[in-house]
Amino acid sequence: ALLSPACGATAVEEAADLALRQINADRKEGYVLRLYRIFSVREHPQEITGSVFYLILDVVDTECHVLSKRLWKNCTARPAHKTVYGQCKAIIYINQARNIAHLNNYECTLQPVPPRYISTICPDCPVDDCPTEPRYLETAAQCLAKFNEESEQTHYFAVLNVTRASMQWVVGPAYFVEFLIQETSCSKNDTIADISKCKPLSSELAQKGFCKGSVLKSHLEHEQFVTVSCEIYSLQDPATEEETEQVNQ
Predict the structure, then answer these.
(1) What's the order of all strands across the beta sheet hosting 155-169?
(2) Which phi and psi angles does 114 have, rounded to 5°?
(3) Which of 1, 51, 86, 99 has its CA 20 to 30 A from that of 175?
(4) What is the CA radius of gyration of the chain?
(5) pLDDT digits (tens, 9 = 90+) for 61-118
């Protein structure tokens, strides 16, 4: 028989946490999803031990890219006007006695906050735009040039794709981007006239990274200001924080 435990029950909260950890670990694109609330739960106790939980979880995306392998609890939710909301349906088998948590199936649907809502809560905030537009690809390239120049990496990196983009008018147009980068075959010891001609290393050899950057074009001073910060992820398929936690215990 199916039971309807309280959403706040410890076993249900643990099931939701484990399900979301495994969902995030499985996803290859986008951002780590964070639990907003447990919308509904049904529990099917198994004949011998353990239970199957049927969960519907309300989630929001975070500042962490899934490549970071960070646990959702350690990732900051985005401010309300930038949040992507969604819902994940998950079926997970949990047997605490034998330390088993197996995600049988899941499906997540996500959607950004409607622009009309953003304009009411934050009329001056930059609005998310299409990340594949040329101006954002150009912004990412300018940010990456700064990273390549200043980083202590041994090879140059190339832009893989822009994952989020927005613009805002300040003393001129300001463009904000989040993008993935991949290591290329070009060594920083060599003089490279055009880094865009550098071929990316194969996926199994290349380090990847996630960057946030901006380009502000000042019409007053007739110059532009570039900012960038990047996280580089290790070459091997990085252990999740969850696995690291288990090793350290």
Answers:
(1) 127-128, 155-169, 173-187, 208-218, 223-233
(2) -60, 140
(3) 86
(4) 22
(5) 999 999 999 999 999 999 887 889 999 999 999 998 888 999 999 999 999 887 777 7
Q: Are 186 and 201 contacting, i.e. CB atoms less than 8 angstroms apart?
A: no
Q: Which structure tokens are listed for 142?
A: 């300018």
For residues 183 and 153, the answer to whether their CB atoms sit within 8 Å is: yes
Residue 24 amino acid letter: N
Instruction: Indicate which CATH number applies to the domain containing 173.
Output: 3.10.450.10
- Taking CA atoms, 98 is separated from 49, 54, 102, 206, in Å, by 9, 20, 12, 38
Find all residues with CB under 8 Å of 248, minimum gap 6, and list them.
none
Contact 160, 182 (CB under 8 A): yes
Question: Domain of 46?
Answer: 10-117
Contact 194, 172 (CB under 8 A): no
For the chain, the domain total comes to: 2
- Res 240: pLDDT: 55
CA separation for the pair 173, 170 (Å, rounded): 6
Q: Are 79 and 113 in contact (CB under 8 A)?
A: no
**pTM summary value:** 0.86
